[in-house]
Automatic annotation (TrEMBL):
The keyword Coiled coil is annotated on this UniProt entry: no
Superkingdom of the source species: Bacteria
Domain Coenzyme F420:L-glutamate ligase-like: 22-217
Residues spanning the membrane: none
Pfam families: F420_ligase (PF01996)
Annotated InterPro entries: F420-0_g-glutamyl_ligase (IPR008225), F420-0_gamma-glut_ligase-dom (IPR002847)
Organism from which the protein derives: Agrococcus citreus
Keywords: GTP-binding, Ligase, Magnesium, Manganese, Metal-binding, Nucleotide-binding, Potassium
Coiled-coil intervals, chain numbering: none
Name of protein: Coenzyme F420:L-glutamate ligase-like domain-containing protein
Length: 271
């Protein structure tokens, strides 16, 4: 059915189920098979979405390093420094990750992993989501979407929330063309995958050892496996109005001014 102005009718109910009983994931584990076994009791069906935390994806892929290599790992995972700030415990670096994500410490994290180790983000979170989605669709004969989630801070907002860093079989962005009164909406495009990841985190928690959540009631957003993944949610650099932190922007401006002044002085001397 369709609602007003041709948009898909919104479902009345949304159900989120924590998937328990998944043990510790180790490098080399067949994570798609493990996820499929774990969700089987919930009888997955068309339109379900399975949210998997990036931690277990990273563990299965062997993205584990000694904690002593944290700073080196951050540098290796980064392609650009956005901002840095010193604090009593060291220096916080906000960087552009090689995947395009802008986040603290390149996503390198010591939580929910063995003592003395750190986890790096998956090599390709969209590909990881795709592999899990393929296994789920094959096993259950149903159109199931998959999101790989991670916890990020937000500019201008205190606190953190989970977002989608990988996705498969789901429309991660759903532009809305008109409002409830039929007026055109030129830029409104809900980040559906991020909203689902955030909702799933409310069920999974941070310390409850629940790395998988099944979401039911959002089948209107489930699509084919050829749908673009979460990389679509990364803002293009040309559209980024806040590409640097304030200190870095001031520093770049002063340096540009110094170079311009030297150039002008050189030109005047030559004349």
């Amino acid at each position: 059915m369709t609602g007003r102005h041709g948009d898909p009718e919104r479902g009345a109910d949304l159900e989120l189920r924590a998937v328990r009983g998944i043990g510790e994931i180790r490098p080399g584990d067949d994570l798609p098979a493990i996820v499929a076994d774990a969700v089987s009791e919930l009888e997955p069906r068309d339109g379900d979405i399975v949210v998997v935390t990036s931690k277990v994806v990273s563990k299965a892929e062997g993205r584990i390093r000694p904690a002593a290599e944290r700073e080196q790992a951050i540098t290796e995972e980064s392609v650009r420094l956005v901002a840095s700030r010193a604090h009593p415990g060291g220096i916080t670096r906000i960087v552009e990750h090689r995947s395009g994500l802008v986040l603290a410490a390149a996503g390198v994290d010591a939580s929910n992993t063995d003592d003395g180790t750190i986890l790096l983000l998956p090599l390709d979170s969209d590909a990881s989501a795709h592999a899990i989605a393929e296994r789920l669709r094959s096993r259950f004969g149903a159109a199931i979407g998959v999101i790989v989630s991670d916890t990020l801070g937000r500019a201008w907002r205190v606190g953190q929330t989970d977002v989608a860093i990988g996705a498969a079989g789901i429309r991660v962005l759903e532009p809305v063309s008109v409002d409830a009164n039929g007026r055109p909406l030129l830029v409104t495009a809900p980040a559906i995958a991020d909203e689902i990841a955030g909702a799933a985190e409310l069920v999974a928690g941070k310390a409850d050892a629940v790395p998988v959540v099944l979401v039911r009631g959002l089948g209107r957003h489930v699509a084919g496996l050829d749908e673009p993944g979460a990389a679509r949610l990364v803002r293009a650099s040309g559209d980024d109005m806040f590409r640097l932190g304030s200190d870095e922007a001031y520093r770049a401006g002063r340096e540009a001014g110094r170079i311009d002044a030297l150039a002008e002085a050189g030109a005047a001397h030559a004349g």
